[in-house]
Amino acid sequence: MSAAEIKTKTFEWFDERLGLRIARDMLDHKVVPLHPGTAWYYFGGITLFLFGVQMFTGLLLLLYYRPTVAEAFDSVRFIVTRVEFGWLIRSIHSWSANLLILFAFVHMFSVMFTHAYHRPRELTWLSGIALLGLMLCFGFSGYLLPWNQISYFATKVGTDVAGTTPFVGPMLARLLRGGEDVGAATLTRFFAFHVMILPLFTCGLIGMHLLLVQKTGMSTPKHLPAHDLSHMKFFPNFFLRELMVWYGVLALLGSLAAIFPWELGEKADPFASAPAGIRPEWYFLAQFYTLKLIPSHVWIFEGELLGLAGFGALALVWVALPFWSTHKPDGSGNARLATGVGVFLVCYLVVFTLLGYFK
Amino acid sequence: MEGNPTAPAPDAGRRTVVSWLLGGGVAASLVSFFYPVARFLVPPQVAEVSVNEVDAGKVQDLKPNSGKIVKFGNKPVLLVRVNDTEWKAFSAVCTHLNCTVQYQESRREIWCACHNGTYDLEGRVVSGPPPKPLEEMAVKIRGDEVVISKRV
Amino acid sequence: MRATVILFLLWIAVWILPGSAAAPDSCVTCHAAVDDAAKGPAALIKNDIHIAHGLSCADCHGGDPTSDDPDVAMNKKKGFKGKPARTAIPKFCATCHSSPDYMRKYAPRERVDQFELYQTSVHGKRLAAGDTAVATCIDCHSVHDIRAVKDTAAPVYPLRVSETCAHCHSDAQKMAPYKIPTNQFAEYKTSVHWEGLTKRGDLSAPTCASCHGNHGAKPPEVESVSAVCGTCHVLFEQLYEKSVHNAVFSGAGGGGGCVVCHSNHAVHDPSTAMLAGPKSVCTGCHEAGSAPAGTATQMAGWLDGLDAALKKSETVLASAEKSGMEVSEAQVHLIDGRENMVKARLALHSMKPLEVEKPVEAGMAIARSTQKAGEFALHEKDTRRMGLAVSVLLIGIVILAIRLLLQRMESTT
Predict the structure, then answer these.
(1) How many CA atoms lie within 13 A of C62 on its CB side?
(2) Does domain A37-221+233-269 have CATH number 1.20.810.10?
(3) Which of A178, A264, C84, C331 could form a disulfide with A189 if both were Cys (CB 3.0 to 4.6 A apart)?
């Protein structure tokens, strides 16, 4: 039997039992529209790929990590120094986490600026925002797990800020910390979030997000009539290109891990004073720095409360984008306003992250 | 495909080169990714993650009213056999300037040679410059083995 | 005249004003009201430990604090002692401070022999002979605002003792009649002991009183210098006492033990420069080229060699750590190496080279093994980068191959 015959026979065996031909036909017919903005299509895939890397490296780390206050730091040290290629897996996991969040933001903003969130893609937008939120939760919970000085105090600061939310703040802080202070209960809780609770929700949402993308098809620029655009087959043409991109990302990850390995730090000591200049990871820096800038009292309101209210309002506007932003084919509507909001948000995030980093 | 029966030979050659390049490249790169993963899965020889307990020798090895230094992870610990039945262990790092302390049999005290700091058998500072007491560890006797562990 | 008028008015005020605090102390009330030098004590006593314990002016100075009439309050018949003469100050304080029965009421563990000690000191002896320029109790402890020794603002708080002694002992005019040098405080401030006190916050580091005594202040005898230094530096004293230098440096003109090499006040961090080279302290007695000078040079060479080897290890390990390798175990092992350095410098004081060689060898062994660990780590780092280069190369090949494949595929459509 030739290789081709084996392939066909295998396919038919599974198709008879699973109905695979539906998938194959869909794949065969899937096309990707070609236009100046086609390159942005890659970013969702990169985000997905990085999430896959996280799942895989996270799973490997799980074989050696111990989620108790007494052993967490030592187990990470063990992984990095004793386990073969442990340094590589750990550094890839840490770097990939940061790249994942970065690319998630880029993906979101590319969707925003190409106005791809409009009807009928509102649910895709909402599930995407939810996924971004989940990624940030992954970042926050995972950051504590090595149990070093920086992660301990950053978690303290972070849960303190969460505790200032009006009404639900104190209860929220207690739920997050598993008690009154950051301690063993917090580590257990964050571990549960990080390896089970968040992955469950994320996988569900990713499934929904991808299904919606398949259902609604790829969005195209509003000013170009869709039927005039040429297309590229998804399989194998676009897929091969995506493979190139994913391989490139892998090369980047490997280089970062080998040349800029992630630090071990010092074991957390709750009785020591917080390290000077303690600040959260970069993806929380913009908000952190904003809160620092706001004076403690503005008129009759507490500064921090005002800051949180501001974030909440901005988040609401952003999440509801598909519902208040309109785009008519004749070019009218408030697309300009929507773009303006997007530009403002990007500038605010970039500037304040940089400020937070250098100040 | 298009099925051009007069496709020139060099084109077929190029096709093979590219296929080989792709297939071989993918295979080799996958090996380079999964080889470290395979090595990672095999647990290292020393499987213990952190030191919580250390074997400090046999009961008969230490005479009553004497002490010895034992390695606990990467820190020194002073094991003292006070009498036939009583054992004590302390972190041997002097709280003044981190010299290693020793047991003084004649005075039944723990002494630091660097600046004459003295501690009693509860780890408390008796005289000299040390600002804090010595951290006490737990000693358990299992049969004829002496085991030192962190105090919970 | 004016004072009397004011006092009369105050006397009226006391009757008019509603109940003042328990048993008004007329000493404080009057002295607080005057404008001249007599006001001073009344303002100072709020910081005084005696007042804090419930004592009053009258408990030291006598007199009647319940009366507002100065003739009654400050009456000798009422036991008023007034301001004691300088030569009588120590006895004045000793009325209470040398009485165990009295002191037991307020501070049972407090010593009561300060006056006895003072009388044996240089200050005490001169005061007894009528010299009022020497230090009495109030010159060090202050007066009217006397604070406990453990109060950081007290002139006798460990961090401030040397400053207090220097008040007189660094003053050339004051010291001229006694022909005592005045450079001690300046020298002491260059010492490791001062550095320990002020930079490291180590309150156990010696101040003037630690070596000279406080109440019985006197420089230690030549024979007792090593015993004094030996209160902290025990092993050094033990080795030195058994060494040849002990006999030589004792006796009048001997130079005073440890002081000969290490100085008394300007005690600096010792180094091999003290053994060999232009600043060597050995060449003071031993001629260049003599056997002892040769031994000194040899030992200096060993110590410098060990120091260099340890530094090399430290550098390699730091470099490995900086490039991301985990070398904490080797770094901890290196601490043992440094301990051997300390042991070697201690062994020096026996003046027996073989005793020095042992810890030096042990230290060198540790330096060698940690150096190897550091080099291995750096090599590992290079291996990793090689592995990375291979992976990136393979990835590059795949990407190139895909591009070629796509080119081929898409040129035919």
Answers:
(1) 15
(2) yes
(3) A178
